[in-house]
Write a structure and sequence with these properties.
8-stranded mixed sheet, about 450 residues, 4-stranded antiparallel sheet, 12 strands, about 45% helix, 4 domains, N-utilizing Substance Protein B Homolog, Chain A, alpha/beta, globular, single chain, Alpha-Beta Plaits
């Protein structure tokens, strides 16, 4: 059986060589290995921590090497990153263990020739501690918070330096797990009691009367409360987006980009499972996630449809409410998906035209007086308010609607809101709403 560090090494090597998603690579490895819950937690922490801190870690390694990192074999670089992460960011790991186990990894993975190098570099890092650039600025923040400079600059230009630093800092260390109580089956008090009876530490969330925050989330699918369909996992920001939609019993709702279905599930609960929700995704396989989730939760008003949101669908009915949560760069969920931070700016620049196309097509389905919520999990004005302002300037039969007025805005008083992790303790998220004028 593999050691926990060997499992973490294999995952990180796969991410490095194959550009695998960290969560998928981690889940596959943990499913394949018979590790204890403690070892699984260690592997998860080591993998996610190393990935999210790569820019910081590589800067440390560069200070201790005479050759470029690109010249190192992937196995050696992976072992060095893992070792450096343990030394600098895992206080409970003895330095000797971090160094010796990293040396063992290169020996056991075909790189014995590099054992002396790994030993020397990691001992130097242990001795000197975390090293940062001398002068504060984009480069300093990039190294300290392991974010590419272009992303720090984007946030600084859009939201100011203080918020840019706050966002970058909040993107490290993972995110808490938030549950949405299935009000069709239980109450929050009853669910809290059920979770506590199964030794799940949790507390009632402040932002909503039907939300619960877990102190430590293990495998939720093993809980009887999960099997009984008493909750689904949904971040604070996503729940607030559903609140902004404010769907009512008996209404017809379109969820244009629905998978994996969390917003449709919460919307169905707002609707008391009365009315109709058409949940869409372009991929049939992802629709199965929505179907199985709705079945577990006892939701009967959701119909799934394979649909390309950028193309008009003549079979869709006119809708009272539309949720248009478009594909985006994901710059607000880096703390959950750390590899997103390594996207390049060119990838992000392609998205707004796609997003605008989906919004424009979606708005065609809206009844007079109906409301469409446009949202993303990205922190990038080009994907957010610029899309809404363009749409309103080109479509006089629509008007802006103020959303979530009870929440703090980061700057100007706008109808839309940008949720920020360091302000709202949520994923980074943009929520806006438009209404089709009755007199149009």
């Amino acid at each position: 059986m593999k050691s926990p560090r060997q499992s973490a090494f294999d995952i990180l090597l796969k991410i490095h060589k194959d550009s695998a998603y960290s969560n998928l690579a981690l889940d596959a490895e943990l499913d394949a290995q018979n590790l204890s819950s403690v070892d699984k937690a260690f592997v998860s922490a080591l993998v996610y921590g190393t990935v999210e801190r790569i820019i910081t870690l590589d800067y440390q390694l560069e200070q201790c090497l005479t050759q470029p990192l690109s010249k190192l074999k992937a196995q050696v670089l992976t072992a060095l990153r893992m070792g450096a992460y343990q030394l600098l960011f895992m206080d409970k790991i003895p330095p000797s263990a971090a160094v010796n186990e990293s040396v063992k990894l290169v020996k056991n993975n075909g790189c014995s020739f590099a054992s002396g190098l790994v030993n020397a570099v990691l001992r130097k890092i242990d001795k000197q501690g975390l090293v940062l650039p001398d002068k504060k600025g984009l480069y300093y923040y990039s190294i300290k918070y392991s974010c590419p400079k272009w992303l720090i600059k984007l946030w600084k230009d859009a939201y100011g330096e203080e918020n840019a630093v706050g966002i970058a800092k909040a993107s490290l260390g993972g995110a808490e797990t938030v549950l949405r109580v299935n009000t069709l089956k239980t109450t929050r008090d009853e669910l809290v009691e059920a979770l506590l009876s199964q030794n799940v530490n949790c507390r009632k969330a402040d932002f909503d009367e039907n939300a619960i925050i877990l102190e430590k989330a293990g495998s939720l699918k093993k809980l009887s409360a999960y099997d009984d369909g008493l909750f689904h996992v949904q971040d604070t920001a996503s729940q607030l987006c559903c609140r902004a939609l404010n769907a009512k019993a008996g209404e017809t709702v379109l969820d244009i980009c629905s998978a994996p279905g969390g917003k449709s599930f919460t919307t169905a609960q707002y609707m008391k499972n009365q009315g109709k929700i058409i949940a869409c995704d372009i991929y049939e396989g992802r629709l199965n996630l929505i179907k199985s989730g709705a079945e577990r939760l006892g939701i009967s008003v959701i119909d799934t449809v394979s649909n390309d949101g950028s193309l008009h669908n003549s079979t869709f009915p006119s809708a009272d409410k539309i949720l248009c949560d478009v594909p985006c760069a994901g710059l607000g969920v880096i703390r959950r998906k750390p590899e997103i931070r390594f996207k390049n700016g060119a990838e992000v620049d392609k998205l707004p035209e796609i997003q605008y196309s989906i919004l424009k097509v979606s708005a065609d389905y809206l009844k007079k007086g109906g409301v469409l919520v446009y949202s993303t999990c990205s922190l990038n004005p080009a994907e957010n308010e610029e899309i809404i302002m363009r749409f309103l300037s080109e479509n006089s039969d629509f008007e802006s609607v103020r959303v979530l007025p009870e929440l703090q805005r980061f700057g100007e008083d706008t109808d839309w809101i940008t949720l920020m992790p360091h302000i709202h303790n949520s994923d980074g998220f943009f929520v806006s709403a438009i209404r089709r004028r009755i007199d149009s």
